[in-house]
């Protein structure tokens, strides 16, 4: 059996976490890890105790704010960072694995929390149809390492029948 790299394990977990999202527009997952240990996980959606957009407004999702963004959504990376903070876990020096590269507001939070590296699967700019990944540009400008995920998920071998 081929042993997967931790980058592959953490990104595959982020992809699976994205499936938990209640958002109508996009499903995004995030994993915060230090070395080989998971610190926190998150996916995008409304704050706990509010409405699940896909259940409350299944056709169109929650109302939009003045910029056209979801009025209830907390981004996956925000959820992962907030959960770590809520539980007293330091994210300083950690790596964030996320299925969609961070938007500019999330990038500012990532930098402020001293996360050292971001590994992303898909481009936020491509998803939004804009010309630049502002979040990635911000992170790169201020010394946070960014890396587009280029690995692959490896399926474990099935056990042999006795």
Listing every helix as H and every strand as E from the N terminus to the C terminus, the arrangement reads: HEEHHEHEHHE
Beta content comes to 15-25%
Please tell me what the overall shape is.
Answer: globular
The total count of helices amounts to 6
Strand line-up across the major sheet:
2-1-3-4-5
Overview of the structural elements:
The protein has 162 residues and is an alpha/beta fold. The chain is 31% helix and 18% strand. It contains six helices and five strands, in the order αββααβαβααβ. The chain has a five-stranded mixed beta sheet with strand order 2-1-3-4-5, with helices on both faces. The radius of gyration is 16 Å and the shape is globular. This is dCMP deaminase family protein. It comes from Rhodocytophaga aerolata. Keywords: Hydrolase, Metal-binding, Zinc.
Question: What would a concise description of this structure say?
Answer:
The chain has helices at 6-18, 53-56, 76-86, 104-112, 124-128, 134-141, and strands spanning 29-34, 37-43, 95-100, 117-122, 145-148. With 162 residues, it is α/β, with parallel strands linked by helices.
Secondary structure: elements and pairs:
Layout: H1 6-18, E1 29-34, E2 37-43, H2 53-56, H3 76-86, E3 95-100, H4 104-112, E4 117-122, H5 124-128, H6 134-141, E5 145-148
Parallel strand pairs: 3-4, 4-5
Antiparallel strand pairs: 1-2, 1-3
């Amino acid at each position: 059996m081929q042993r997967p790299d931790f980058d592959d394990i953490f990104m595959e977990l982020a992809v699976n976490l994205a499936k938990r999202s209640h958002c109508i527009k996009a499903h995004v997952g995030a994993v915060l890890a230090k070395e080989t240990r998971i610190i926190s996980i998150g996916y995008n959606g409304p704050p706990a105790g509010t409405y699940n957009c896909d259940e409350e407004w299944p056709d169109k999702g929650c109302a939009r704010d003045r910029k056209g963004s979801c009025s209830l959504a907390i981004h996956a990376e925000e959820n992962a960072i907030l959960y770590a903070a809520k539980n007293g876990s330091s994210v300083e020096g950690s790596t964030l694995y996320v299925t969609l590269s961070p938007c500019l507001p999330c990038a500012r939070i990532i930098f402020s929390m001293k996360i050292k590296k971001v590994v992303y699967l898909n481009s936020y700019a491509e998803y939004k149809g804009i010309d630049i990944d502002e979040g990635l540009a911000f992170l790169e400008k201020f010394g946070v390492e960014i890396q587009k995920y280029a690995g692959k998920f490896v399926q474990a071998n099935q056990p042999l029948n006795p």
